[in-house]
Amino acid sequence: MSVGAWRVAVLGAGLGGLTAAHAIRRRAHELGHAVELAVWEAGDRPGGQLRTTVEDGYVVEWGANAFRTGVGPTADLVARLGLQDQQVHADPAANRRYVFHGGQLHLLPSDPMSLLNFTPMSVAGRFRVMAEPFLAERVDHDESVHDYAARHIGPEAAEVLLGTMVRGVYGGDAHLLSVDAAFPVMREMERDHRSLVIAGLAGMKERMRERKTTWSFREGMNVLLDALADDLGDVLHLGRRAHALARDAAGGYRLTAEDGSSERFDAVVLALPPRPAADLLAALDPEAAADLRAIPSGPIGMAAVAFERSALREAPDGFGFLVAPGEDLPVLGVLIESNVFPHRAPEGHVLLRVIQGGVARPDLDDLNDEALLSAALDAIDRAWGVVAPPVRTWVGRQERGIPQYVLGHLERLVRVEGHLRRLGGLHVAGNAYRGIAVGKLVDDAEHVAEAVWAEVPAPTAA
Ligand SMILES: Cc1cc2nc3c(=O)[nH]c(=O)nc-3n(C[C@H](O)[C@H](O)[C@H](O)COP(=O)(O)OP(=O)(O)OC[C@H]3O[C@@H](n4cnc5c(N)ncnc54)[C@H](O)[C@@H]3O)c2cc1C
Question: Which of the residues 277, 291, 326, 369 could staple to 272 if both were Cys, CB 3.0 to 4.6 A apart?
Fold first, then answer.
């Protein structure tokens, strides 16, 4: 590497860190910058929350199981890594989604007619949704997802529909999350069209143009993680936990690993959960660290359960179900993996993933695997009836869970980014800041790469 190369460290090799590192290096080449990159990952494998187990004909995901994207950075990344031939699209027959409400499954409405037959809501509540175009107004301040939804579709639909969705996506509480931070597209719909119904109709054409689909890789998310890790090569250091970060006399940073070794970098990208990011920043900028520490999250548990098809009284239909707030079923939802991607279970078998935890379940960390599995089997039994035991089970947990974009999140993010800009050469990446979905992390990696190179003087032509 030539003298004068910009030394960039990316901390954390979850999808956020891997894609940020990939984008930083690519943009360096495009912009003509010389770069020396190092990715430090505390664990012994890349991927963080993403992990795939392929065993005996089953493909089991421990984190996200799919992307929902169209044209854009994710498609470009897949093409650059040469992975298009390994992409698989969700079976369209698995589009139907259910909600567990009042002790049973109900098909979630997909159009106004099906809403009229949606019995978890009162008749008045259903008509209130239909009246949305006449009552909708724009507001110019942030509000909770629940308050936003209640203004548009009424309090009952806000509780049943949005309350359930927020549990499914964030393991969160719609009364606490900020609509501007957690679902910015909803605010855009309101800003552009006032009414969500009108926005939905107007947006159809745009959605067709974006061609968003649900897809993954035949052998799961590991395909992407392995390709990104291969592409980074010996730049990726596994089992290297960042322990301390200090200012360097030359205006850069000295980064010390847990084993005491240290290196100097010009720029550092913290693609870490907010707590370890805060620990590293505590001495440099206590205020930024306090803001990061204040980003809440709830633990998530996952039990994957495989049955012979005949072991369930009713065949599980569609994509899966989410559990409405207030139900006495201690899980967030169940995904029917073998419906969405039929090759993920052997012929004649069903693979289900039961997700539990979230902000309402801080006790999850205290539950052992047997308890998680027992809750999962209970949920499956109440939904479809279990008549014979499962043939395989896998149980795991993500202690740091999913970050919650609560009210005030965007202001907090602006403050943190302002502090880091003043320090110079420091950036945050990953799911705690600008989007939790895997597609959003790939988009965000481009933003992070731009921010890194924006601080570096353009190279002069030789
Ligand atoms: C059960 C579950 C289901 C999900 N389903 C979906 C879905 O269907 N669709 C979707 O879009 N998203 C889904 N998600 C969310 C998505 O998987 C995550 O948002 C994403 O994988 C997070 O990636 P990340 O890089 O931000 O963080 P992480 O994956 O947490 O990566 C952070 C990395 O930092 C490392 N690290 C921590 N401290 C240090 C340190 N001091 N030094 C060095 N390294 C360190 C960790 O070991 C880890 O590898 C799901 C998440 C879960 C848990």
Answer: 277
Question: Contact, 316 vs 381, CB < 8 A?
Answer: no
Give how far Cα 270 sits from Cα of 25, 219, 239, Å: 16, 29, 16
Is 49 a pocket residue for ligand 1 (Cβ < 6 Å)? Answer: yes
In CATH terms, 297-403 corresponds, of 3.40.630.30, 1.10.3900.10, 2.60.120.260, 3.90.660.20, to 3.90.660.20
Identify which of 340, 438, 442 to mutate to test ligand 1's pocket (most ligand atoms within 8 A of the CB): 438
Q: Which residues have a Cβ under 8 Å from the Cβ of 342 and sit 6 or more positions away?
A: 91
Which residues in 74-131 belong to E strands, given as ranges?
87-89, 97-101, 104-107
Query: Tens of pLDDT along the chain (462 residues)?
Result: 444 899 999 999 999 999 999 999 999 999 999 999 999 999 999 999 999 999 999 999 999 999 999 899 999 999 999 999 999 999 999 999 999 999 999 999 988 788 999 999 999 999 999 999 999 999 999 999 999 999 999 999 999 999 999 999 999 999 999 999 999 999 999 999 999 888 887 876 666 667 789 999 999 999 999 999 999 999 999 999 999 999 998 889 999 999 999 999 999 999 999 999 999 999 999 999 999 999 999 899 999 999 999 999 999 999 999 999 999 999 999 999 999 999 999 999 999 999 999 999 989 988 999 999 999 999 999 999 999 999 999 999 988 899 999 999 999 999 999 999 999 999 999 999 999 999 999 999 999 999 999 999 888 765
Closest atom of ligand 1 to 17 CA is 25
Q: Kindly provide the residue ranges of all beta strands, DSSP E only, lying in 271-368, ordered along the sequence.
A: 297-308, 320-323, 333-336, 349-357
Task: Write out the CATH class of domain 6-47+220-295+406-454.
Answer: alpha beta
Which among 271, 307, 218 is positioned nearest to 21, based on CA atoms? 271
- Taking the centre of ligand 1 as the mean of its atom positions, its distance from the CA of residue 428, in whole angstroms, is 14
Q: 39, 41, 49: which to mutate for ligand 1, most atoms within 8 A of CB?
A: 49
Domain boundaries, the chain: 6-47+220-295+406-454, 110-209, 297-403
Dist. CA 449 → ligand 1 center (Å): 19
- Best CA proximity match to 297, nearest among 170, 415, 444: 170
Q: Could you tell me the fold of the domain covering 110-209?
A: protoporphyrinogen ix oxidase, domain 3 (1.10.3110)
Of 272, 353, 354, 428, the residue with max ligand 1 atoms within 8 A of its CB, to mutate for a pocket test, comes to 272
Query: Does the reported pTM lie above 0.90?
Result: yes
